[in-house]
UniProtKB/TrEMBL annotation:
<keyword id="KW-0812">Transmembrane</keyword>
<feature type="transmembrane region" description="Helical">
    <location>
        <begin position="50"/>
        <end position="83"/>
    </location>
</feature>
<protein>
    <recommendedName>
        <fullName>DUF418 domain-containing protein</fullName>
    </recommendedName>
</protein>
<feature type="transmembrane region" description="Helical">
    <location>
        <begin position="352"/>
        <end position="371"/>
    </location>
</feature>
<feature type="transmembrane region" description="Helical">
    <location>
        <begin position="136"/>
        <end position="159"/>
    </location>
</feature>
<dbReference type="Pfam" id="PF04235">
    <property type="entry name" value="DUF418"/>
</dbReference>
<dbReference type="InterPro" id="IPR007349">
    <property type="entry name" value="DUF418"/>
</dbReference>
<keyword id="KW-1133">Transmembrane helix</keyword>
<feature type="transmembrane region" description="Helical">
    <location>
        <begin position="14"/>
        <end position="38"/>
    </location>
</feature>
<feature type="transmembrane region" description="Helical">
    <location>
        <begin position="318"/>
        <end position="340"/>
    </location>
</feature>
<feature type="transmembrane region" description="Helical">
    <location>
        <begin position="95"/>
        <end position="124"/>
    </location>
</feature>
<feature type="domain" description="DUF418">
    <location>
        <begin position="225"/>
        <end position="386"/>
    </location>
</feature>
<keyword id="KW-0472">Membrane</keyword>
<dbReference type="InterPro" id="IPR052529">
    <property type="entry name" value="Bact_Transport_Assoc"/>
</dbReference>
<feature type="transmembrane region" description="Helical">
    <location>
        <begin position="278"/>
        <end position="298"/>
    </location>
</feature>
<feature type="transmembrane region" description="Helical">
    <location>
        <begin position="237"/>
        <end position="258"/>
    </location>
</feature>
Length: 400
């Protein structure tokens, strides 16, 4: 299979950049509030007025959408790096280093890490890289369906038991735990480490069981989309336009119904189950719509300049992802940070995200104007190849 030309690769870089920026709109809740509030928005701080509107916008347009795109691109990256031959090249050392970096990120910085899951699943997903696009899509859908049975089915299984376990004693215990957690996060980095490590361990085990099949399925579909030419903007303008129009509308309607179901039911157990059902499938459709729209723009020369900052952010996705953690940890965790955990409402969380977006869209092109890789991309590549890689761009001699 011939490699796409440089112009087409801009489509993948831009989509990756949009994905790494987009996931922060959801991740910020995991930095600013309790992990319980990420799943149940009524658990901590205000959820009325503008705060409810911000939550609704994030849930409709961002929830599961950009992690879906990111996972799909990770699968495509496996084919790009390992190829389709017998030799996987440096894929396994690459995944092992990613696993180590992800573990450090998860247990020392932020419990919501996705790198550990990607590394572990990436070691398995590489086995499928030589399958045909049709087979990859089929198995991808099967795996996504398995995850749906656990995530959506589990939400509905909880409905008959709603309220049975809610007692004053348990409410008091939860309130005490939330207070202790908030105090530890505000106190300082060392004080919150046990909380963070505990949530990381629980999240990784539970996430791999319930969410892991979806991630693996998306990696398979990403391989298929790369092989078919979708991600390299090789399809026709008309095809991308039709796909974008259909999937953006359908995905929005499903996602919107999921959000409104939760709000209308005041986030009770049944409302959350219904909302999860719509959102799980809506996120798949809407994320495909986002990707189709980016591919469409990548084929239109007039939008090339618009996509370039996102492409730079995408080439430095690893660095930008970890940088987001460092910024948010400094803001929300105490000494040596600011310790604002549990005090910044959703409206202001969104404002912080917009600021980080602006910074990363500016600094990524500036960095790449001088260097070949982002800082962490360089570290990862150097570890994988067991020697320091050239970092500075070579300057061409002046003509004449």
């Amino acid at each position: 299979m011939a490699s796409p030309n440089t112009e087409r690769l801009i489509s993948i870089d831009a989509l990756r950049g949009i994905a790494v920026l987009g996931i922060l709109m959801m991740n910020v809740q995991g930095f600013a509030m309790s992990p319980f509030a990420y799943d149940n928005p009524t658990m901590q701080m205000d959820l009325t007025g503008a705060n409810l509107s911000v939550w609704a916008i994030a849930h409709t347009f961002f929830h599961l959408k950009f992690i879906t795109i990111f996972s799909t691109l990770f699968g495509a990256g496996i084919v790009m790096m390992a190829g389709t031959g017998d030799d996987t090249g440096r894929h396994y050392p690459r995944m092992l280093w990613l696993l180590l970096i992800g573990a450090i990120h998860a247990y020392l910085l932020w419990w919501g890490d996705i790198l550990v899951s990607y590394a572990l699943l990436g070691m398995l997903a590489v086995k499928a890289r030589r399958m045909s696009p049709g087979a990859l899509v089929t198995w991808g859908i099967v795996l996504i369906g398995v995850s749906a049975l656990m995530m959506v089915g589990g939400a509905w299984l909880a409905v008959p038991f709603a309220g049975m376990s809610e007692t004053p004693e348990q409410d008091a215990m939860m309130a005490e735990m939330m207070a202790g957690m908030t105090q530890a996060y505000q106190a300082g980095y060392l004080e919150r480490l046990p909380w963070n490590a505990g949530f990381a361990a629980i999240g990784q085990i539970g996430g791999l069981i319930a969410f892991g099949p979806r991630l693996m399925g998306l990696m398979f579909i990403g391989m298929a989309l790369f092989k078919s030419g979708f991600l390299s903007a090789s399809w026709s303008l008309g095809r991308y336009a039709v796909l974008a129009a259909v999937t953006l509308v359908a995905g929005y309607l499903l996602s919107h119904m999921g959000t409104q179901s939760m709000i209308a039911g005041e986030f009770d157990t049944e409302a959350m189950a219904l909302g999860t059902s719509y959102s799980y499938f809506g996120s798949l459709v809407l994320s495909f719509g986002y990707a189709s729209a980016v591919m469409l723009l990548a084929k239109l020369g007039a939008f090339r300049l618009l996509l370039m900052p996102f492409a730079s952010a995408g080439r430095m996705a690893f660095t930008n992802y970890i940088a987001q953690t460092l910024i948010m940890t400094f803001i929300f965790v105490g000494t040596p940070g600011l310790g604002l955990f549990g005090t910044v409402e959703r409206v202001d969380q969104a404002k912080l995200v917009l600021i980080v977006w602006a910074v990363q869209l500016i600094w990524s092109p500036l960095w790449l104007s001088v260097f070949r890789f982002g800082p962490l991309e360089w570290v990862w590549r150097s570890l994988t190849y067991k020697q320091a890689q050239p970092l500075l761009k070579r300057r061409e001699p002046a003509a004449g």
